[in-house]
Amino acid sequence: MRLGGRRIDPSSADPLERRVLNVVQEMAIASAPRSQTCTCSTTTRINAFAAGHGGGDAVVAVTHGAMEKLKRDELQGVMGHEFSHLLNGDMRSTCA
Fold it and tell me: Is 74 a catalytic residue?
């Protein structure tokens, strides 16, 4: 990824990554879009974004700071916001 992120391996044993993957899977079940899940470990700031051109190349990313500092319900709110970008097709194509 051009922004210093990496895809979270679906078989990751890291508890923070597992929590993010679980939240994303819950959102995908509820809203139907499929996406890869990435983390940007280069910053401790709280942030997340959706990127891609739509369809099969959608990516939802979250910073390591968000994974560490947000409670699960807060993380759900942030990821729900990013999924709204997927549903509305208004994500930027900043990830490669």
Answer: no
Instruction: Determine which one of 17, 26, 74, 82 is catalytic.
Output: 82
Q: Give the domains, in start order, of the chain with CATH numbers.
A: 6-88 (3.30.2010.10)
Q: What is the pTM of this model?
A: 0.72
Using the Cα atoms of residue 55, residue 33, residue 10 and residue 65 in order, give the sign of their dihedral: positive
Residue pLDDT, tens place only, 31-68: 656 678 888 877 889 999 888 776 677 888 899 999 99
